C-alpha cells in the first residue's frame, strides 16, 4: 500500500531488523528501513518513540542489541563514532564562544589530517555555502540566532560527511526565521548532496523539508513515504491522526462495485460512499478518514455530491486564510469542515446553530482497517 523501498534509489543507510533494548525495555523493535543517498529524510513520532535512539545508533553512541546497520554497504558496528562518515548537529549548536566563526568551522578540520592550505579553502567554501563570509571574524555572541545555526551547520558539513544527523536543528529559532531557515536547509542539502536525517517535533517542518518521512510509534516505523503520500494516503488511523487534522468516521463496509464501498455508520438512514484500492469484505469494520479541507459546507444540499450529511454548526474558528467549522451530525459525531476565506469575510457565512450540509466526494477520504 505504501512503498517501503524504491528499487531505483541507492540506499546509504540500511537498518536490518534492528532492535535496541535498554534493560527489559525495547526502544527500537525489529526495525527495517532504508535511507537513500542524497535524500532529506525525517523521523516523526511522539516523544519516546525511539527517534533519538536511531540517531544515536547511527552516530555510534549506542549499539543495536540485535540486527545490523549498514552505511554504504558496510556494517558500521565495528567503526567508532569519530571514524564514521556521520556527523550530528545538536539543537544547542555547541559553538565555542571564544572562537571566531571561521575558527569554529575550522576546528574539526584542524584535528584531522587535512593540510593547512586545504583547511582555508574548505572553510571559505563552507562560509560561502552558508552565506557567512561577512561574519567570519565575529564571535558567536556577535551574530544572530539564525547565523549561529548556520555556523553550526557549516561546521557539521566541513568534513564532508556522507550523513548529517539533525536533532531539532531549528528548535531555538522563532517561527518566521524557522520557516526561512527550512528553505535554506533544503538548499544546502541539495547543493552538498549530503544525506540529511532530521528529527523534529514540528510535523509541518518535516513535511516541508523532507523528501521522505517515517512515522514512528513505540520503536517501530508505521509508514514511510513522501510527505504527500503520508498525508493523502495514510496507512493507518494512527498516521492519519498524527499528521495534520483529520475526521475519522467509524462504520462497516459493504462492497458496491469496483473499489467502491457503502459505509454504514452512526446515521443508519444515510450510508456513506467511499472509494478504496484497499479491499474490504462485507461487514468489515472500517474507519473513514477525511481531511477537513476536503469537506465542503453549504446551506443547501449539493445536487451531485457522493456524500452529503445535514448537521448543525457548533463552533467556528476563524484562522485568517481559512475558517474551520465544527458540525454536529445526526449520530452525535462532530466533523470539522474547512472553508477558504478567499473573499473578505465581513459577515460570517454561517453562524452557530445554523443547519448546514457538509459534503465530500467518494475519493476524498481514505478507508482504513484500524
Ligand atoms: P523525544 O521526542 O522525547 O526526544 P524520542 O523519540 O527521541 O523522544 P528516544 O530518546 O529514542 O525517544 O527514547 C526511546 C525510549 O527509550 C524512551 O522510552 C526512553 O525513555 C528510552 N531510553 C532512551 N535512552 C535510554 C537509556 N539510556 N536507558 C534507558 N532507557 C532509555
From TrEMBL:
Residues 13-243 form the ABC transporter domain. The keyword Cell membrane applies. One of its GO terms (biological process) is putrescine transport. It catalyses: ATP + H2O + polyamine-[polyamine-binding protein]Side 1 = ADP + phosphate + polyamineSide 2 + [polyamine-binding protein]Side 1. Keywords: ATP-binding, Cell inner membrane, Cell membrane, Membrane, Nucleotide-binding, Translocase, Transport. The keyword Cell membrane applies. Its EC number is 7.6.2.11. GO terms for molecular function: ABC-type polyamine transporter activity; ATP binding; ATP hydrolysis activity. SUPFAM superfamilies: MOP-like (SSF50331), P-loop containing nucleoside triphosphate hydrolases (SSF52540). Pfam families: ABC_tran, TOBE_2. GO terms for cellular component: ATP-binding cassette (ABC) transporter complex. Belongs to the ABC transporter superfamily. Spermidine/putrescine importer (TC 3.A.1.11.1) family. NCBIfam families: potA (TIGR01187). PANTHER family: PUTRESCINE TRANSPORT ATP-BINDING PROTEIN POTG (PTHR42781:SF5), SPERMIDINE/PUTRESCINE IMPORT ATP-BINDING PROTEIN POTA (PTHR42781). The complex is composed of two ATP-binding proteins (PotA), two transmembrane proteins (PotB and PotC) and a solute-binding protein (PotD). Part of the ABC transporter complex PotABCD involved in spermidine/putrescine import. Responsible for energy coupling to the transport system. This is Spermidine/putrescine import ATP-binding protein PotA. It comes from Roseobacter ponti.
Amino acid at each position: 500500500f505504501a512503498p517501503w523501498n524504491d528499487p531505483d534509489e541507492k540506499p546509504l543507510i540500511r537498518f536490518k531488523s534492528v532492535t535496541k533494548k535498554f534493560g527489559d525495555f525495547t526502544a527500537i523493535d525489529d526495525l527495517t528501513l532504508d535511507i537513500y543517498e542524497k535524500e532529506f529524510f525525517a523521523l516523526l513520532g511522539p516523544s519516546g518513540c525511539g527517534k533519538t535512539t536511531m540517531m544515536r545508533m547511527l552516530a555510534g553512541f549506542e549499539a543495536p542489541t540485535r540486527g545490523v546497520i549498514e552505511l554504504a554497504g558496510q556494517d558500521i558496528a565495528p567503526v567508532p563514532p569519530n571514524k564514521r562518515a556521520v556527523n550530528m548537529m545538536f539543537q544547542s549548536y555547541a559553538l565555542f564562544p571564544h572562537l571566531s566563526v571561521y575558527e569554529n568551522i575550522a576546528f574539526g578540520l584542524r584535528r584531522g589530517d587535512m593540510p593547512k592550505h586545504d583547511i582555508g579553502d574548505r572553510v571559505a567554501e563552507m562560509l560561502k555555502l552558508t552565506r557567512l563570509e561577512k561574519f567570519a571574524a565575529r564571535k558567536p555572541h556577535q551574530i544572530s540566532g539564525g547565523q549561529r545555526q548556520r555556523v553550526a551547520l557549516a561546521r557539521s558539513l566541513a568534513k564532508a560527511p556522507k550523513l548529517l544527523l539533525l536533532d531539532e536543528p531549528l528548535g531555538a529559532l522563532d517561527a518566521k526565521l524557522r520557516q526561512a531557515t527550512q528553505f535554506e536547509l533544503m538548499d544546502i542539502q541539495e547543493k552538498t548532496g549530503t544525506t540529511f536525517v532530521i528529527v523534529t517535533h514540528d510535523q509541518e517542518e518535516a513535511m516541508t523539508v523532507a523528501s521522505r518521512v517515517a512515522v514512528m510509534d513505540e520503536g517501530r516505523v508505521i509508514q514511510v513515504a513522501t510527505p504527500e503520500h503520508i498525508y493523502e494516503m495514510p496507512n493507518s488511523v494512527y498516521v492519519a491522526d498524527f499528521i495534520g487534522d483529520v475526521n475519522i468516521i467509524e462504520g462497516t463496509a459493504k462492497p458496491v462495485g469496483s473499489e467502491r464501498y457503502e459505509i454504514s455508520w452512526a446515521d443508519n438512514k444515510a450510508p456513506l460512499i467511499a472509494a478504496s484500492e484497499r479491499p474490504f469484505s462485507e461487514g468489515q469494520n472500517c474507519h473513514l478518514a477525511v481531511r477537513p479541507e476536503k469537506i465542503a459546507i453549504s446551506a443547501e444540499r449539493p445536487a451531485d455530491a457522493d456524500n452529503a450529511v445535514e448537521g448543525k454548526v457548533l463552533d467556528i474558528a476563524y484562522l485568517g486564510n481559512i475558517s474551520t467549522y465544527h458540525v454536529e451530525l445526526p449520530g452525535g459525531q462532530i466533523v470539522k469542515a474547512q472553508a477558504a476565506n478567499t473573499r473578505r469575510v465581513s459577515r460570517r457565512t454561517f453562524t452557530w446553530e445554523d443547519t448546514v450540509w457538509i459534503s465530500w466526494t467518494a475519493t476524498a477520504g481514505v478507508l482504513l482497517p484500524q
